[in-house]
Amino acid sequence: MDLSECSAKLDELTVKIGHIKAKLDPAAKTAKIRELETITQKPEFWKADQSARKVMQEMASLKEEVDGIRALEKEAADQREVIAYLQTEKDDSLIAEVETNLHALAKKLDSLEIKTYLSGPYDRGDAILAIHSGQGGTEAMDWAAMLLRMYMHYLDTNPAFSYRLIEETKGEEAGLKSATLMVTGLHAYGYLKKEAGTHRLVRLSPFNADSLRQTSFALVEVLPHFEDDTAEIEVNDEDVEWQFYRSGGKGGQNVNKVSTAVRLKHLPSGIVVQSQEERYQEQNRKIALSLLKSKLWLLREMEQEKTLSSMKGQKMASWGSQIRSYVLHPYKLVKDNRTGIETSDATGVLDGNLEEFITAELKL
Fold first, then answer.
1. CA angle 12-16-21, nearest 5°?
2. Full residue range of the structural domain in which residue 101 is found
3. Same domain, yes or no, for 42 and 85?
4. Which of 115, 136, 168 is the last residue of a domain?
5. Of 262, 191, 244, the residue nearest 222 (C-alpha)
6. pTM across the whole model
7. Among candidates 195, 224, 203, 150, which has minimal Cα distance to 339?
8. Hey, is 124 helix, strand or coil?
9. DSSP string, 200-231
10. Same domain, yes or no: 135 and 111
11. Are residues 79 and 214 in the same domain?
12. Burial of 245 (0-12, 13-18, 19+ CB in 10 A)
C-alpha cells in the first residue's frame, strides 16, 4: 500500500470499529460489570459454586469485550497519528509498518465482530452436543464416531472450551449409535448452535469387500445447557420414570459393582435420556435431569415455530435439513449447504478444523 491507500484502509476500519462499538454497547456492559462486581462482594456469593462460576465468567467476558473495543480505538488513533506524520515526512519503512499494523487491526476487528453475532438469550452459556447415527447400520454408526472425534478435536484446540463425555452407546460392530458431550465455556452454545442438523458422508465403504461407494447420515443436536435446578423449564416428579443400571463408563470398579448409570423417561413427551459416565449415581441423575430440560426446551421452541411434528421420532426423514456434506470419494470436498463455504481439505475438517465453517454460520 502507498500512504493514500493506508489512509483509506484506516478510514474503512474506523467505520467498522464504530459499527461494532454500537452493537456491543460498552457503556451498558460497563454498567453490567459494576452490577456483577457488587454481587461478588456479598458474603454468601461463594457458597454457591455453580452460580459464582457463571457470574465470574460473565464478568470476564464483558471485560474482554469492553477492553477489546477500547484497545482497537486506541490502535486506530495511533495509526492515524503516524499517517499524519508521514504526510509531511516521507519514510517508506514506516509506511510498511503501518500497512502491517492495519492488517493486524483488521484481524482483531474480525475476531471481535463475531461477538456481535452472539447475542441470543443462551449464547453465553454451556452447550450439550449430541450425535445420533442415521439409517445405514454400521456405516452410519462409524460416521457418528467420526463426527464425535471431529468435534472433540475442534474443542481440544479451543482453550476457551472444555468438554466431557456424558453418554456413549456403541454400535454392535463398530462406531456409535449415539454420544453426548457437555461443552462448557463462554459462548459455547453460541458458537456451536448452528452445527445442529444432518451431516452427510460420501466415501468408499470400509465395511464390505467390494468397497462400494456409500452415503451415510448422522444427526447433530446442539442444545443450551440448563442446570437441573433451573426454574425456566419445569419438570414434575410424577412425569418422570427413572431407571438405574450398571455402567461400563469411567469410574473404576465402582461402576461395575453399583447401578450408577441413569436412564430417565419423560412420560408426557416420551423423551428418554441417559447419563452413565460419572462415578456416582447422584451425579448422573443431575446430568440426566439437565439433559431432559434441554430437550424439553427444544420441543418448546419447535412448538413455537409450528414444526414440532418434523422433529418427532428417530427416522431420517424427520431430522430436518441437511447442513453439510463431507465427500471423500471420488474427490475430497466438504461443503456447507447454507453458507456455501467449501474446502478440499476434508481430512483437515475431520481433524477438527471447523473455524471457517463456524464463523460463516454465525454471520448467517
1. 150
2. 3-115
3. yes
4. 115
5. 191
6. 0.81
7. 195
8. coil
9. EEEEE-SSSTT--EEEEEEEEEEEE---TT-S
10. no
11. no
12. exposed
**What sign does the CA torsion over 282, 287, 288, 292 have?**
positive
User: Going by DSSP bridges, is the β-strand pair 213-224/333-336 parallel, antiparallel, or unpaired?
Assistant: unpaired
pLDDT tens for residues 15-25? 999 999 999 99
Contacts of 88 (CB under 8 A, 6+ apart): none
User: For 258-267, what is each residue's pLDDT tens digit?
Assistant: 678 899 999 9
Give yes or no: residues 97 and 164 share one domain.
no
Identify whether residues 134 and 192 lie together within a single domain.
yes
The residue type found at 360 is: A
Segment 311-314 long-range contacts (CB within 8 Å, at least 24 positions apart): 314/132
Same domain, 200 and 249: yes
State how far the alpha carbon of 66 is from the alpha carbons of 16, 125, 126, 282, in Å: 16, 19, 22, 40
| Closest C-alpha among 272, 117, 132, 133 to residue 194 | 117
Is pLDDT above 80 for 250?
no
DSSP string, 22-71: HHH-HHHHHHHHHHHHHHHTSTTGGGSHHHHHHHHHHHHHHHHHHHHHHH
Residue 298 grid cell:
427444544
> Which residue type, as a one-letter code, is found at position 65?
E
pLDDT (0 to 100) of residue 229: 63
End-to-end, the C-alpha distance of the chain in Å comes to 32
Query: What pLDDT does residue 100 have?
Result: 95
Distance CA 147, CA 158 (A): 17
Query: For residue range 269-316, what is the model confidence (pLDDT) as tens digits?
Result: 999 998 887 778 888 888 999 999 999 998 888 777 654 344 444 333
67 or 257: which leads in pLDDT = 67
User: Are 263 and 247 contacting, i.e. CB atoms less than 8 angstroms apart?
Assistant: no
Angle in degrees, CA 199, 353, 192, rounded to 5? 60
Distance of CA 125 to the CA centre of its chain: 10
- Which residues, other chains included, contact 150 with Cβ-Cβ below 8 Å and sequence gap of 6+? 349, 350, 351, 352, 354
Q: In what order do the strands lie in the sheet with 127-133?
A: 162-170, 176-184, 127-133, 213-224, 197-204, 322-327, 333-336, 342-343
Cis peptide before 121 (omega within 30 of 0): no
* 155: Cβ contacts below 8 Å, ≥ 6 apart: 161, 162, 163, 181, 183, 352
Hey, which of 77-91, 229-243, 272-286, 303-317 has the most confident mean pLDDT?
Answer: 77-91
